Amino acid sequence: RLIGRGDEGTVTARVARNSIAPIALNLFNRGIDFAFALVMLRVLGPEGSGIYTYVVVIFGWFDIVTNFGLNLYLIRETARDRTKAAFLLANTSALRLGLVGLCIPLVLAFVGARQSLIADPLSAEALTALALLYIGLIPGTINTGLAALFYGFERIEVPSAVATLTTIIGAVMRLGALLLGFGVVGLAAVSIAANLITLAALAWTARSLLAAGLRGAAVRLDVMRRMVTESAPLMLNHLLATIFFQIDIVLIEAFHGERMVGQYGVAYKWLLALNIIPSFFTQAMLPVMSRQARENRDGFRRAYLFSIKLLLTLAIPVAVIFTFAAETLTAILGGAAFLPDGAIATQLMIWSIPIGWMNSLTQYALVALDMQRRITWAFVAAVGFNIVTNLIFVPQYGYQAAAITTILSELVLFIFFARLMVIGIGSVSWFRVTWRAGAAGALMIGSAALASMLHPLIGLVIGCGVYAAAVIGLRVFSSEEIERGVTLLPVRVREPIRRALRTA
User: Fold this and answer.
1) pTM
2) Under a CB-based contact definition with an 8 Å cutoff, are residues 246 and 57 in contact?
3) Considering the chain, what percentage of its residues have pLDDT values greater than 70?
């Protein structure tokens, strides 16, 4: 067992339970998705995969609008008062379904504008796939609310386990659709069936959480109006954050076509897989940070800065490994048809994750501080920078410009987020927080580059060893932070780790 009984009430133990197991399950899910992607990318090729990537991006924007920030709202409010769980779920679900209907004219308007303004209109295949994905929103948006309910109860392992089940079933169904020749349309149709299976599983497992409050779970318009008012900034922030990350896909498709989108999409697949780590860690932290923001602001500051260091210290070696192994990783995932452009895109895009992971945590920290309205302006600035820079450079330089712009946009967003965090936790010396991890990363790059002259694999092994030694030698984490981190480990290995760290 990872967490002893005596540890279950501690903040760190709750974070461990709510992040380690879900991350493990979702890494397994991502492994299944990648196994499927090995087939999908080879069957569809760069152009077909580019069509599917583009359609999924556009669908994702409308998915965010229909969910309207209610996911974070439901997690936060359920964590604060669990007796209202059924009431909150009923009203958020009713609001989500209403928004699905209201957004249909927006979808039609977007499609009409896209077909008339861009020289090469979307194919019938792409339009059909988009329509099927949107139909899948009906069960899908309820699934989102049910998953958020478990997050609010700090039982994140439940939706993660359900996601694993449906990922396995969905992968088999999608594989069948591809092998039968249904292509992009078949993949979109399978998403409806997968959402229905997920809905049945989540609804069944959520019964015990909802039973006590079902009698008072009436839908009330005044409550939904209040939810709209409070959640609108969350929705806008989420939409801006997604546009911030994905607008380059839309612009590359407009200026260079679906083939380049497919090649660039290989890098996106790697980033999306890796972003499971900060996503689930920060969502596990949200209920904890929501309470600390009200009850223990000093504890909130310590937990936030420790989490920043932890994510940065993990992101840096991941970025280095992907930089050196990008060609091999791209060949494994997509095959020769995606080389060399897919590898170059991966080498560039991967360096967005050190800052991006810090931004992911900081966004949730600001939500816990009830500063979501101020976050909006940070995203407006970052998205504006992203769009303008991409419009200037993507027409001439393509995906290379888009990848570099992503890194610079993350930096712009971090600057605005850091200024907002001063209001919540006071001034922070970001150089002191980050320089040791950065120095360890520089040593890793240098040692890996030198050792790679012998063999690339030897270079990565030596680089990882040097990085680990540098993290310990440079004392990236304070003794208090080390103790907090050690409590995340299995009970039986805590003392040996403590002794080893004291010796070091």
Assistant:
1) 0.80
2) yes
3) 90
